[in-house]
Amino acid sequence: MKQRGNLAGLAEAAAAVFLTLGASFMFRACTVHDGTFMVCHWAQNAVVLIGAVLVILSLLRLIIRGQEIRTGLALSISVVSAATILIPGRIVHLCMMETMQCQAVFRPAVIIVSALLAVIAGADGITGLLRFGKKT
């Protein structure tokens, strides 16, 4: 395979792994208080689950050789990562105080990493569509 074609796939895989591990360990939501989970814990779980799905999709994108399938996987990665932006604070509510870990660290980090992944995968998918259009 061409190295140039895999560069976007490697970047997608790295961003997906960073989103998954980052949400689990580095920029995680609030911790347990009084023996119960805060509401933002469930946002973190959703981001980690979707991050794991993104890792699988990006690895499939690296493994599969068919250009059409790789393009479809890149476009699906872009859509799913764009949807991930909506999880913290929109789909799953976070803590009310702006100074809490989930509001100050978790939400901005998820938005930035997910947006970066959506842009990389979207550009990869559009490039693949353009290449595929030239072949026919």
Gross morphology is elongated
| Helix-strand sequence | HHHH
Beta-strand segment tally: 0
Radius of gyration: 17 Å
Distance between the termini: 21 Å
Description of the structure:
The chain has one domain. It contains four helices and no strands. The chain has helices at residues 3-26, 40-63, 67-84, 101-135. It starts with a helix and ends with a helix. The relative contact order is 0.19.
Summarize the structure in short.
The protein has 136 residues and is mostly helical. It is built from 4 helices and no strands.
Give the SSE map.
Layout: H1 3-26, H2 40-63, H3 67-84, H4 101-135
Helix pairs in contact: 1-2, 1-4, 2-3, 3-4
Could you list some keywords that capture this structure?
mainly alpha; 4 helices; 136 residues
